[in-house]
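Run log, item B.
One chain of 225 residues. Sequence copied directly from the ordering sheet:
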Amino acid sequence: MISPWDRWYSTSCCLCCHVRTGTIILGIWYMLINAVVLLILLSALNDPVQYRYHLTSSELGTDIDVMDDANICIATAISLLMILICGMATYGAYKQHAAWIIPFFCYQIFDFALNTLVAISVVVYPNTVQDYLQQLPGTFPYKEDIMSTNNMCLVFAVLLFIGCILSFKAYLIGCVWNCYRYVSGRGTTEVLVYVTTNDTTVLLPPYEEAIAMPPKEAPPQYMEA
């Protein structure tokens, strides 16, 4: 009987590339995004007057400092950690080290769980959508038109959007997991295989080494004097 893990196992992703290639591209893409965020945060630390965002009294009635130095430092540390995790996944997929892919896979599971909790909170507390819209600045485009829409339609649109994001994230999780299984499987095939018969035990080399081995020379023929 085929297990569910084996049933969904595949060495290709996005209908065209290998799971190793897909994991490398995904890791590089995440590294680029976090690198851009890190540059913005470092610029904000260097010149806080230019990059710090203030909500004016005309928008919320008070002057609130959204991004202070502590929050920027925490976000910078998170961006550095994410660059490290994505770099480990890229290196692990390229060099076929399965253990290096695990931190990135755990991050994907954590991110998927957070988005799932957001979807559950929207279902349990549908009024949170309206509360979030009311907190937006008055200059936000089409704010009044969106708030005048039926609350159930807004909840349905938000759930549909989150559902599409969750489906895409689940597919990426499957690709990284299949890459981990593929790299782990390649590591196990390099182990020597023992073939046991009734009388003897034969030690076989790996398949790749067996192909690369030069053929043995035939023994010389026996010549009668």
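Observations after the first pass:
- The radius of gyration is 28 Å.
- The mean pLDDT is 75.
Flagged for discussion on Thursday.
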